[in-house]
Specification:
This protein is 33% helix and 13% strand. By secondary structure, it is an alpha/beta fold.
Length: 219
């Protein structure tokens, strides 16, 4: 597989539907499967605690990867890169973005990985509110939400903010560890991609401190 399009939920994810990416292998993380409700894609990677209510009704992907899949490839990365660590998942980066990225690197080994719709797309004001309120998420039951669904909760909680997901609102969970953490882990991942001969590029039309690591590259 020459080119992999690695897709998250930020607004730039919608660019994945452009005809110029028809020949790219599509890998979606968590809610990004929603882009392909009426079509097929190659791989769906979801976190171990991804809410069941947000699972696709019909499987549109050829390969589904959950916790056991990406934890195994983090172990493989530890051996490949000679990491002297006890927790390769934390070392890779403790978000589904990074662990899914290493899964692609180790399992698919493409020539190029293009990123769309990931952590750098999030509204930082929204992130500040979320962190200040003890990071409501599925683990803490969204601080005892009263709404029936996560979507209803998100719409109410972020009602004063512009939507920054292609499907509306959601929690900026990958940013819970901070922008500096994302930048540090992405720099290390870029170095490891270079070692493997993989070109890791930003395809998003978003430009900020995170995307500067990869540069602006629009296919």
């Amino acid at each position: 597989m020459k080119n992999v399009l690695y897709i998250g939920s930020g607004k730039s994810a919608i660019m994945a539907l452009d005809d110029k990416y028809n020949d790219w292998t599509k890998v979606c993380v968590n809610n990004a499967w929603r882009l392909f409700e009426d079509s097929n894609f190659y791989m769906w990677i979801h976190s171990g605690d991804f809410p069941r209510e947000n699972f696709p009704r019909d499987r549109k992907c050829e390969v589904e990867v959950g916790y056991h899949g990406y934890s195994k490839t983090c172990e493989e990365a530890k051996e490949y890169f000679k990491w002297d660590v006890t927790s390769p998942q934390h070392h890779a980066g403790y978000t589904i973005f990074f662990q899914g990225l290493y899964h692609i690197m180790m399992e698919i080994r493409p020539n190029r990985i293009g990123l769309l719709g990931f952590d750098h797309d999030y509204n930082l004001d929204k992130v500040e509110k979320w962190i200040g309120d003890n990071k409501p998420n599925i683990q803490n039951k969204f601080n005892n939400k009263t709404e029936e669904t996560i979507k209803e909760w998100s719409d109410n909680y972020f009602k004063d903010f512009d939507e920054d997901f292609f499907y509306g609102h959601g929690t900026p969970d990958p940013m819970r560890l901070g922008e500096d953490y994302i930048i540090d882990k992405l720099k290390k991942c870029k170095i490891n991609c270079d070692i493997m001969g993989i070109d890791l590029i930003n395809l998003s039309n978003v430009s900020n401190n995170v995307t500067k690591i990869l540069g602006d590259y629009y296919v």
